[in-house]
Structure formats: structure tokens, C-alpha cells
Amino acid sequence: MVQFRRLAALLIGIWLGASILTDIAVTQNFQTVDRFLAAPGNPATAAELNQIGRPLERAILRRNAAEENNFLFTNWERSELALGSLLFLILVFGDRPQKLLMGLSLAMLVIVAAEHFLLTPPIVDLGRLVDELPPASPEYKRFWLLHGAYSGLDILKMLLGAAFAFRLVVRRAPDKDHFVKEYEKMNAVPVTQGSPRG
Fold first, then answer.
1. CA-closest candidate to residue 86, choices 15, 172, 170
2. How many CA atoms lie within 13 A of 163 on its CB side?
3. N or C: which end of the chain has fewer CB within 10 A?
4. Which residue has the higher pLDDT, 160 or 184?
5. For 175-190, how does the pLDDT look when each residue is reduced to its tens digit (9 = 90+)?
6. CA 18 to CA 85: how far, in whole Å?
């Protein structure tokens, strides 16, 4: 039982921690573009950027950042599918399978599968066009709708993961008479029908 809890805690910790780091990295990729253009680091780089033109340079760098984010999301989702499957198998074949934990891990796994197979491909495709589209276009609106759905599902996944971790940490107080009850069950004398004196 202890080993099962340790493995489950390790996997959910890796899952939640890496999810947070991925979200931070994706956010910072876009913000780094503006920071770099505001302070390129040396005069020679600044002069070259001025020759190209900051607006054009910003568009190119943001496109590069978007491609990096696509790579991060796609490969992290694949890793999540592997982590989630392993966690679910540990729960199923653990000493005492707990339905609540199994349900939470399965729900997280379903969310990641929906993100990876249903949302990420169209988000990647539309994301390559969205900067050139007018805000009123259907593709522009669809991109942000899908993006919002992805963010909402990701928040839900994190909340389920936090509930999973909380359930692992907070346990009911152990039954002090557990071993006594088990011993009595093992040594119980079977009751026969009729009077023992008969």
C-alpha cells in the first residue's frame, strides 16, 4: 500500500509540476520577443534590427515563438498521455484500487486526449494564419474559441490533479483494531447447525 502511494504521488507530482513549467515556458516565449526587441543586448544587434524594421522583426520572432510553443504542447501532451496511462495502471493493479483516484486519473487522461487529438491540430493550423486574419473573420474567431476551450480544459485538468494529490495526502485515520479483526476472521470457528450437545 505504501509503495502504491509513493508511486502515485511521484507520478502526479511530475505531471502537475511539468504542466506548470510548460505553461510558464509557453507564456514566456511570447513575452521574451518584446523584451528582446526592447533591449537587444548590444548596439550591433540593435542596428541590425533597425535595418530590418522592428514591426517586421516582431512578427517573425512571434511566429518562431508560436512554432516553439506548438512543439512544446504537442510533445508534452504525448508525455502526459504516457504518464496518465502509467498512473492509471498503477491504480488499477495497486493493492487496494480506489475508485475515486481511478476516476480522477481517468478524467485527466481523457482531457489530455481531447486536447491532443481534437484541439491542438486545428489550433496549430489556425495559429499559423491568425496574425494575418481580420478579427471579424470566422477563422480568427474559431482560433480564439478553440484556444479558450483548451485553456479551460487545462485548468480543469490541473484542478482534478490537485484533488488527486490532496486525496493521496489526506487519508482516513487507521483502524486501531484492524489486525485484531483480521485475526478473529481467520480464526473464527465455523458454526454448525443443531445443538452442540446433540
1. 15
2. 14
3. C
4. 160
5. 566 566 666 777 775 5
6. 16
| Lookup result for grid cell 443443531 | 194
CA-based angle 60:65:66, to the nearest 5? 95
- Contact status, residue 161 vs residue 19, Cβ threshold 8 Å: yes
Map residue 196 onto helix, strand or coil. coil
Angstrom distance (rounded) from CA 188 to CA 191: 9
User: What number of H helices and E strands is found in the chain?
Assistant: 7, 0
What is the crossing angle of helices 138-169 and 99-114, to 10°? Answer: 160
* The three grid cell numbers given for residue 77, joined into one nine-digit string: 501532451
Q: Which residue has the cell 478524467?
A: 107
Share of the chain above pLDDT 70, in %: 87
CB 40, CB 46: distance < 8 Å: yes
What pTM does this model have? 0.83
Pick from 157, 163, 174, 160: which is nearest to 96 by CA? 174
Cα-Cα-Cα-Cα dihedral sign, residues 144, 129, 78, 61? negative
Query: HEC states along 87-130?
Result: HHHHHHCCCCCCHHHHHHHHHHHHHHHHHHHHHHHHHHHHHCCH
